[in-house]
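Can you make up a protein sequence with its backbone structure tokens?

===
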Amino acid sequence: MPSFGIIQLNEVAEYEYLTELAKQAHEFGFECYRFTPKNIDPISQIVTGYKFIHSEKEWVQVQFDIPTILYDRCFYSNDKEAKEYSPIIHWLKSRKDLIFLSHGFPNKWDVYQCLKLSPSLSPYLPETKKVLSFDDIRPYFLNNESFLMKPLFSSQGRGIYVIEPSKDSVSIKTVKQGNLIHKILSFHQAKKWIIQLIKKYSYLIQPYLSLNNHDSRPFDIRVFLQKDENGNWIERGKCVRIGPIGSFLSNISAGGEINSFEDGLSKIRQEYRRFIEQEINEIVRSIPTIVEEKYKQLFELGIDIGIDEKGAIWLLEVNSKPGRKSILKTAPDLKNTLFQAPFLYAKYLLNNKIVEKVRE
């Protein structure tokens, strides 16, 4: 029976999702394991991790060989984690005896540069720069322009700041554990704080876009794509995420709520709503081909799209390791489809590998 391994940085991360996933493995002929990169013995290449026992419906700690099929669910929260663990993942991906569902993306800056090269997508991208020093940020302060600072490595809106300079002070907002944190600093205090922040973490900056709905609540559109059992991209669903009043994030982890795509855009006049749908469909249709040309094989994508108060459409982010909570909130009937998809695609990859060996 082929082995299916889930790689994670934290043994308790996504526990509920990974357990539901593992329950499906036996039906598709896989033994399911999960482990962290640091628990691979570099000499013996034996892994200490967890095996899902189908009859007991629970995880048991065991030692095992590196699984044949690997599903990367590692989320780097900062530069240190990326430097520590990404070389191990890169080594695993370089091995010809192992099959990854997805090769994933290295970081947000790399993805932005890839998308920016596409004539069809670049008009939808907010101008983005990598912060190397305070000089990269200084123009925003000189012009009293609001901007957003986004970590190179992050998920669920963690570590994002909205900074609003004015003549006399600087407003800084972030969200921690679903709560909006807001402080007012002088220019010199803000400069000192930013310099300390970018020394510790790698950041991107973008102009702050006011992505609010008719109720002055931040919102965006999440589109979720997966490959099916034949290796074809399928749109599993899309929804609208709406954040609390006064916040700037719409993520569930930041206190956001989820609406169906239709309900979320219901207050927009019909003719413009049709235009938005057409534009979103064009954006979504273009992305898989463009990113796979650079990043090789991918399995799933979460695409976040915003609409500003002037009606302009923005491509905010493309994520190769999306969550499922947003889509399942509006379409719970998709649960089995989403949890079975990794194994169906794994069988497709496994069969293709066998065919390739026969041809050799």
